[in-house]
Amino acid sequence: MIKVALDAMGGDNAPKETVKGAIEAINADSDTFVYLVGLEDVINKELANYKYNKDQLEVVAASEVIETGEPPVMAVRRKKDSSLVKALYMVKEKKADAFVSAGSSGAILVGGQTIVGRLKGVQRPPMSPLVPTMNGVFLLADAGANVDSRPDFLVQWAKMGSIYMENVVGVKNPRVAIVNVGLEEEKGNQLVKETFPLLKACDDINFIGSIEAREIPNGGADVVVCDAFVGNVILKLYEGLGGGLLKKIKGVLMSSLKTKIGALLIKNKLKEELKTMDASQYGGAPLVGLNGLVVKTHGNAKSTEIRNSILQCVKFTKMNINDKIVKSLENMPTAND
Amino acid sequence: MIKVALDAMGGDNAPKETVKGAIEAINADSDTFVYLVGLEDVINKELANYKYNKDQLEVVAASEVIETGEPPVMAVRRKKDSSLVKALYMVKEKKADAFVSAGSSGAILVGGQTIVGRLKGVQRPPMSPLVPTMNGVFLLADAGANVDSRPDFLVQWAKMGSIYMENVVGVKNPRVAIVNVGLEEEKGNQLVKETFPLLKACDDINFIGSIEAREIPNGGADVVVCDAFVGNVILKLYEGLGGGLLKKIKGVLMSSLKTKIGALLIKNKLKEELKTMDASQYGGAPLVGLNGLVVKTHGNAKSTEIRNSILQCVKFTKMNINDKIVKSLENMPTAND
Q1: What residues 117-136 of chain B have any CB closer than 8 A to a CB of chain A?
Q2: What is its subcellular localisation (chains A, B) (predicted)?
């Protein structure tokens, strides 16, 4: 069985949705085992609502909770008995294969790197969410873990992202592109200009060159690499602009009796189409390149995203992604600084 | 009269839409004079379609055209008799106050800086488009002119952008923010960390701190400063994601008889709401900080955007924006490199 340590207390909807998501995951897959880490009484009270196979779940007591606003480094260092820190230690000590949390992004990033630790050969694990396009998803690396990156970091992310997309998402020979301000090879900032030839020289990835941000939502690439500052801007602008436009459309639909009738006629089709823009079916954002797997879901994740994140960890572990990553980085010059 | 040199041959829809836009501008404002620069015969043929005051327009012959795909530096250097280069020289020689083109971005950037030249004290003129939000517009500086920027460039852009928004767009005490990956003051890459205290120390701008990309479409700031790499990603992702989502919605509306009937009921309201997201009423993207004004419209600009860009130049010149910019930069340490 693949064992996932779930931070049952993390996120806006914990522990209700975290516990529900855990139950949904183990009910969906008999090879999945979940450690629910957190306040014992609270978790057990939630668990009482469900029927499930007791051999696939265990509650692990943790007396503290890290709040979203807390300074991450301090929180991880001081709250040793928090659900987040305790669950991460279970991965470090190989009691669990992977970790899932909807809690503080900062604490997950810090804790993932300092407690779980990096895989052999990995310089900087990137936060690598799957982001929806008009016709699928792409993996964005790095979406927020490492600002002021170096060219060799981006090359590693391209390799790791390709392995992830091929094995976990099932995209054959994924197209890798680097975010740029134009398509000509002489375009770009210094980081891009230095990284481009390194990516071009990799014979184990399908590098298609530069991608302008305009083409990203059109599905122009399967793995999009960039510095974490740029990646974070892409991810958050996606959320802000997508959310804002949908709110505007809803406002239009609800503005009068006439438009409300119109809304009834298009509602089902609209929902169906927008569902394809929801990446939560793929789980959360993995911090790839650690000794195990650390997955961060949205802070407001509901049970479905928790469930899918747990199943994502199971697939990741079963597919031996980390072995593949270590192997792909073997021939790279490393500067483990 | 304020004189605007229009590159009549630039853009996908030239010279039909450029000539039409020029006519619309001079018919809208009797203080506006337009030089239509380009192939004389072609322009005169278009002009024959319109009635207008001949004292407000003059055709200036230019025998060459710079195409979108040409390498900008070479094109500007070699095609001395192109409409783009000739129109820029008219600004340099003070025959015209401003320049408008829907042509090659690269050639406009290169030509603007090398032919027209920088204002006293300006280090790097930023490409500064007005970008729509859910309830207005913000000025984005820099959207593509200067990658790998320095902190003092961004400070100048904050000042110039504030002057533009206050005087040309009419936003009182515009809120200035720097793009960042979080709101806490310790967040950011090196550029942001170095720029933040400099912006905080400016007493002539209304600096409100960091802005995450998620809040940009919500109208979280009136002037958004960032490195041109990041700005270009913001601008192009806006176009790509906005366009993609609207295409998806259109697809929904056209998918069946039922949804087509629904579409009829919401059409007018939807158009009205989406019109508020169209920034072309404000004209094109100004390259601010030159001895004159250089404005780049979209490559596919129609007459309305051309017209508004010309009127934008008139307002900019009448409001003495360049004097205000020079004055605001006087007390800054300059390193005109």
Answers
A1: 133-134
A2: Cytoplasm
Contact A266 B252 (CB under 8 A): yes
Task: Give A52's pLDDT tier (boundaries 50, 70, 90).
Answer: very high
pLDDT at B278: 80
Selected for mutation to probe chain A from B105, B109, B266, B267 (highest A CB count within 10 Å) is: B266
CB-based contacts of A87, cutoff 8 Å, min separation 6? A5, A6, A7, A35, A37, A60, A62, A96, A99, A101
Determine how many CB atoms are found less than 10 A away from the CB of residue A250: 12
The edge-to-edge listing of strands for the beta sheet with A223-225 is A130-132, A137-141, A223-225, A175-180, A206-212
β-strand pairing of B293-296 with B285-287: antiparallel
**Chain A residue with the nearest C-alpha to that of B262:** A262
Cα dihedral sign, B225-B229-B233-B235: positive
Question: CATH classification of B130-278, choosing from 3.40.718.10, 3.60.21.10, 3.40.50.150, 3.40.50.720?
Answer: 3.40.718.10
Record: contact A229-B189, CB cut-off 8 A: yes
Beta bridge partners of A179: A211
Instruction: Report the run of H or E that residue A194 belongs to, with start and end.
Output: helix A190-201
The DSSP bridge pattern shows strands A285-287 and A293-296 to be antiparallel
Q: Kindly report the nearest CA distance between residue B15 and chain A, in angstroms.
A: 26
CATH number for domain A1-122+289-337, candidates 3.40.50.150, 1.10.3720.10, 3.40.718.10, 3.30.565.10: 3.40.718.10
Confidence at residue A333, expressed as pLDDT on a 0 to 100 scale: 59
| Residue contact A148–B189, C-beta within 8 A | yes
ipTM of the complex: 0.93
CA distances from B1 to A76, A130, B28 (A): 66, 55, 14
- Name the A residues in 274-333 with CB < 8 Å from any B CB: 274, 277
pLDDT in tens, A9-19: 999 999 999 99
